[in-house]
Design brief:
The chain is α/β, with parallel strands linked by helices. It has 15 helices and 14 strands. The strands form 3 sheets. A 7-stranded mixed beta sheet has the order 4-10-9-8-7-5-6, sandwiched between helices. A 4-stranded mixed beta sheet has the order 1-2-3-12. Strands 11-14-13 form a 3-stranded antiparallel beta sheet, covered by helices on one side. Strand 8, helix 9 and strand 9 form a beta-alpha-beta unit. Helix 2 packs antiparallel against helix 12 and helix 5 crosses helix 10. About 45% of the residues are buried. Bound molecules: pyridoxal-5'-phosphate.
Length: about 400
């Protein structure tokens, strides 16, 4: 009797989501040639993936994964502190530390697990965390789990952050820990934070800084022509890699595989190994995942052609969208097109799919209420013809 009542209640909640066009389900999407994928039996151009460099299907990564399987098998057997640290992990973490100009690095099973675990490990109820309003959900969940006092400043508004830092200083004891936490490239808006200014502010207020480079890793590198680019993210772009206390990022977006890294000082990384519950209590990643990640970290530093192709495509979409008079501009490979309400967004999403373009509609709570949007992401694998086709279709359906 009791559970029937409960099930009815869940059904009503799902019906309410459907009524607002906010019911979600997973679509089957099968990779095809280049930027194509098969959805509902048809080959369409995928503009919804974070596979920015096309590495997810790269033969060099596949070979590295297969080699790791042949040598070590498909599973890792245990959590890393028990018996799951394969020698490949050691190699990968050394590579990542060098890649990020950090003293040392630690691999987590996913970006979500990294963010939840590291905030829980680094701060507690006496401490303060200062978050950009649009930070990724995993950072929000990490703050909640940590029990720290946390506050959100207006998106990219460093004056507002400074107010918050001042207010906290007036109340907080000098011994409490203060962390500023931000995405570098914001995944749903395609904009980014000026890390030079943010680092300066953090130093001025004695706060530590955690930067989530999930969407910037492999996509941005040094902006100084005299410095060879490692393409490790926006910390490198702004020349502040060594002034960011923890650089976190994923191995699953630009790097094409799965997993996440955190790079920083030995003190902080040892703290994570000893305290982050999502690290301690979860089985280590499978060897092929680590093997592919080692290859990906190497390739983003040595094969500039992928990044070049990606940024050529960004320039192409910007130009064509401006020519077509579409309200679609971005400085990054993420182009948001905010339409406002969910039904309208999903209607355009369905029409685009019928026309051969897979552009996912993004609805609350992923984005704030009233800002449902199409989110177009570019990759190195798109062709100018595909981008032109998308712009034409958008012109027709908006
Ligand atoms: C995707 C993402 C994560 C989560 O990473 P996963 O490896 O997918 O769990 C964390 N932070 C940001 C900013 C992200 O975009």
């Amino acid at each position: 009797m009791k559970t029937i009542h409960m099930m009815n209640s869940y059904q009503q909640e799902l019906d309410a989501l459907s009524a607002e066009d906010r019911f979600r389900h997973c679509r089957v999407v099968t990779p095809d040639e280049g930027a194509l994928c098969v959805v509902e039996g048809r080959s369409v151009v995928n503009f919804s993936s974070n596979n920015y460099l096309g590495l997810a299907q790269d033969p060099r990564l596949k070979a590295a994964a297969v080699n790791a399987i042949e040598q070590y098998g498909v599973g890792s057997g245990a959590a890393r502190l028990i018996s799951g640290t394969n020698e490949l992990y050691e190699a990968l973490e050394e590579d990542i530390a060098r890649f990020k100009s950090a003293e040392t690095a630690l691999v987590f099973n996913s970006g979500y697990q990294a963010n939840v675990g590291l905030l829980q490990a680094l701060v507690g109820p006496k401490d303060w965390v200062f978050c950009d309003k649009l930070n990724h959900a995993s950072l929000v969940d990490g703050c909640l789990l940590s029990g720290a006092r946390w506050t959100r400043y207006r998106h990219l508004d460093l004056n507002h952050l400074e107010d918050r830092l001042r207010q906290a200083d007036a109340k907080a004891s000098p011994s409490c820990k203060k962390w500023i936490v931000t995405d570098s490239l914001f995944s749903m808006d395609g904009d980014s934070v000026d890390l030079q200014a943010l680092v300066t502010l953090a130093e001025q207020y004695g706060a530590a800084l955690l930067v989530d480079e999930a969407h910037a890793t492999g996509v941005y590198g040094s902006r100084e022509p005299s410095k060879p680019s490692r393409n490790s993210g926006l910390s490198e772009y702004f020349g502040v890699s060594q002034r960011v206390d923890l650089q976190m990022g994923t191995l699953s977006k630009g790097l094409g595989g799965f997993g996440a890294y955190v790079a920083g000082s030995k003190i902080l990384i040892d703290t994570l190994v000893n305290r982050a519950r999502s690290f301690i209590f979860s089985t280590a990643l499978p060897p092929p995942v680590i093997g592919a990640a080692i290859k990906a970290v190497e390739l983003v530093q040595t094969d500039e052609s992928m990044k070049q192709a990606l940024w050529d495509n960004v320039a192409c979409l910007r130009r064509l969208a401006a020519q077509a008079g579409l309200p679609l501009q971005s400085e990054s490979p993420v182009f948001p097109l905010v339409l406002g309400d969910a039904p309208k967004t999903m209607a355009v999403c369905r029409k685009l799919l019928e026309a051969g373009y897979f552009v996912q509609g993004i609805r609350p709570p992923t984005v704030p209420e009233g800002t449902a949007r199409l989110r177009i992401t570019l990759s190195a694998a798109h062709t100018p013809v595909q981008i032109e086709g998308l712009v034409q279709a958008l012109g027709q359906f908006l």
